[in-house]
Amino acid sequence: MQPSPLTDHVPLEHRSFAAVEHLAPLLALFLPMFGNVVGALAAWLLLRERHPVLDAQGKESLNFQLSLTLYSLVGAGIVLFTFGLGLLLLWPVFAVFYVMQFVVMILAVASTLNGKPYRYPLSIRFVR
């Protein structure tokens, strides 16, 4: 699918708003468990009607946070199902996802501040 001419670059006047959308999941630092999803959702809902690129980047951030939450819940289910033994195998995966969340968030902010839209890796497109 071809990107729309309105969403294939981030206009200068909307770059800081796009960066806010990518940084909003940091709400998880203050609201554990689902703060990352709440932050991404709130930023997207507040900014999506200003410009199509803000709508697209907000969806990207929200979809990535929803995907990470789903992956974490599946991992937690495996740990519970195995009565904690799964944690012996999955703790490196949890650690990688935790660090990856911050790394890709920084990459997304840098990309949008440079005028390029960002696509998150391992993201399921829940919101289209």
From TrEMBL:
Transmembrane regions: 23-47, 68-89, 95-115
Pfam families for this protein: MamF_MmsF
Topology with respect to the bilayer: Multi-pass membrane protein
Keywords assigned by UniProt, alphabetized: Membrane, Transmembrane, Transmembrane helix
Compartments, record wording: Membrane
Top-level division of the source organism's lineage: Bacteria
Protein name (database record): Tic20 family protein
